[in-house]
Amino acid sequence: MPDYYLGIDSGTQSTKALVVAADTGAVAGRSAIPYDLIPGLPSGHCEQHPQTWVEAMVGTVRAAIRNAGIDPAAVRGIGVSGQQHGFVPLDREGRPIRPAKLWCDTSTAAQCDLIMEAVGGPQECFRLLGNLVLPGFTASKILWLKQNEPDHFRRLHTVLLPHDFLNFWLTGEQVMEWGDASGTALMDVRQRRWSAEILQTIDADLDGKLPPLRDSALPCGRLTPAAAQTLGLQPGVLVSAGGGDNMMAAIGTGNVSPGVVTASLGTSGTIFACSDRPVVDERGEIAAFCDSTGQWLPLLCTMNVTIATELTKDLFGVDTVGLNNLATKIKPGCDGLLLLPYFSGERCPNVPDGTGVWFGANRTTHTPAHFCRAAMEGAVLGMNYGLRRMRELGINPKEIRLTGGGSNSPLWRQIVADAFAAPVVCTTEPEGAALGAAAQACWAVRREQDAAARIEDVTDRWVRLDPTTRCEPVPEATAVYARMQALQDDLSGRLRETFHLRSRGI
């Protein structure tokens, strides 16, 4: 009986599961279940119930196995990818105390300032962590709970991240691996250990509420009988360390050695590269993360990619196909219509109070087609702001592997190639994070048999590029986007001095 591995990607908008054949990396079955944020919260607050993730994981796993038509006993390992930075507060019994505050929650900007001021400012944060304390990260969410919900904070026994919580449900083990933990703003990414100085600024007892840090190559544990029965699997199946969605997408796109760069067009926009050394940006715009293979993952994150296009679709009452059809009617640069896409605040540049701005609307550009294309272009230019900083830090992509929902659009792909001035190509499997989670599980099982097994032994066989998706930059369009980039950067900088764009950082 052939072996299979489960990859689970628990995201902000949905949970997806893949059943992957061990020998070829072929996807035998898949499933997805959508969900939403908790409605009605104040502006800047983004939360979800952890139980929502559990229910979606159970549903997708059972459906994916059913769709694959395999014997559940053939599943040898499980890997979990999760949205990064979310704060899951557990009580002594391991139950969530309240809904999780997510990566896109920008309500904790004041707590970020307090933490950084308490340790001596941004430069001291770089010394202690390798990163700034930003609203998207986990640290400020813990201080927010202490200051705003003291009754809940008194019950806090364990701090977990979203994928850690799902691992806990699967195995009964409470641990964190280096990759996802590096996005908490609690861990020194150079030494891969909790920063005692940062923890003390939040709470004197916080150290005892954090789970043990583990090498990402080590498994989290094994499937409990209760979880196995609920999922329809065999107890004792190995559960790998898992990781944050970007760390898993790196594995799932073969980004496991220096020189490969991945860009993800999802709710957020991320660009990340594998490095054999920490890459610390003292401007704080590029995150100095660890990856989930024992290396490092310098990463930029913008909070508004498909958010921009979803809002535009709602505005004009079109679906994804309609938006793409309208946008293709307009030439690059949108005749001067430009979007500053900070609808959910922004992380790169660091303007958590930012808002969206449409600039250049006139009688020519005030059409649905112009607005649809400008939404796509504005989101990509927002990502390119960070990519240029990565280049300054020595990361120079010769080719970019594209993943995420936006990568399914030929127009998105061409805009990315033109704006980034680099060729782009997709992998044959669009769900890079779920595939990466399954690949990590396969690696963990192999390491039990051979400690020298490498993650490349899996990814070299599993990850394939799709030549039909390759796009080369068009010089004329690249020149247009260079001018639009300069305009977006200038507009962003000027508006940060007004009431709706306050910059936080150095």
Write the layout of secondary structure elements.
Elements: E1 4-10, E2 14-21, E3 27-34, E4 47-48, H1 50-68, E5 75-82, E6 88-90, E7 100-101, H2 109-119, H3 122-128, H4 139-148, H5 150-155, E8 158-160, H6 162-171, E9 176-177, H7 178-181, E10 187-188, E11 193-194, H8 196-202, E12 213-214, E13 221-222, H9 225-231, E14 238-239, E15 243-244, H10 245-252, E16 261-265, E17 269-273, E18 287-290, E19 296-302, H11 306-316, H12 320-327, E20 338-341, E21 356-359, H13 368-392, E22 400-403, H14 410-420, E23 424-427, H15 432-449, H16 456-462, E24 465-471, H17 475-495
Strand elements, count: 24
Chain-averaged pLDDT: 94
Alpha-beta content class = alpha/beta
Distance between the termini: 58 Å
* Total helical segments: 17
What does this 3D model show about the protein?
By secondary structure, the protein is α/β, with parallel strands linked by helices. It is 38% helix and 20% strand. The protein is built from 17 helices and 24 strands. Strands 1, 2, 3, 5, 13, 14 and 15 form a seven-stranded mixed sheet that branches. It has a seven-stranded mixed sheet with strand order 18-19-17-16-22-23-24, sandwiched between helices. A two-stranded antiparallel ribbon has the order 4-7. α10 crosses α15 and α13 crosses α17. It is globular, with a radius of gyration of 22 Å. The mean pLDDT is 94.
